[in-house]
Amino acid sequence: MSLQINYHIHTIDSPFWSFALHDGHLIDDNLLPYLLLSEKQRLREEDPYTALIAELPVNQFVIGTSRFQLDINRAVEESVYLRPEQAWGLEVWKTNFPQTFLEQLYKKHQYIYRLIEQHIQSSIQKYGFFVVLDIHSYNANRESPTATIDEEANPQINLGTYYNDPKWRELTDSFIHAITSQTLYGLPIDIRENVRFKGGYLTQFLNKRFGDKGCVFSIEFRKDFMNEWTGEPDVKRIAACKQLLINTVQGLKEYFAYEG
């Protein structure tokens, strides 16, 4: 039995990319007999609606398979959650999870990264540079549905830049300014770097190979655009997050004097 990984790539004439690696909720039918989690448990730790936010006027790479099947934003040896400490204390798989399936998933991970590498290399060859917007969301209210969010510890947007080459500092400052010059949900935007997250395997992978040619902005939206306990979306807020990034892409074009 061959396991499937659902993904979608949309390319246009642009050096910019948006990624939504954790939006997916799909689990291959062959794996369902071994899965211990309910759909609700999975949804809690996935990043629903980030694929909608990533629908920007740039190249797009979206993973439709759940991170609980294969986490593309972790190194291959950590990409299948075999231990609770890899998955927020959750037991994901039964103990009889087949080794053949595990090996297939690792190979799928490697295949996806070959695709990513090829596409970014093509962007560099055509434009001389690239920028990736790596879009995620995070839970800031883990105690209970009614608890008050600690906004000091949980910025509205956590921008992961830790692995980027220092040469992109000026670009980073410009990117942050492009965001803070706007509002989100009618309020000033609290965006801070590397407070909750520094960036995952995607940014490490791309910076190791192409860090002198471009960088990755790992954008973690606090889940203010949805109920993080039930998964219920706030459609207007999702649209606001998307519009925020559409406007920010225009700032990237101006920074690089890119006319496309």
Automatic annotation (TrEMBL):
InterPro entries (alphabetical): N-FG_amidohydro
Pfam families: FGase
Annotated protein name in UniProt: N-formylglutamate amidohydrolase
Organism of provenance: Sphingobacterium paucimobilis HER1398
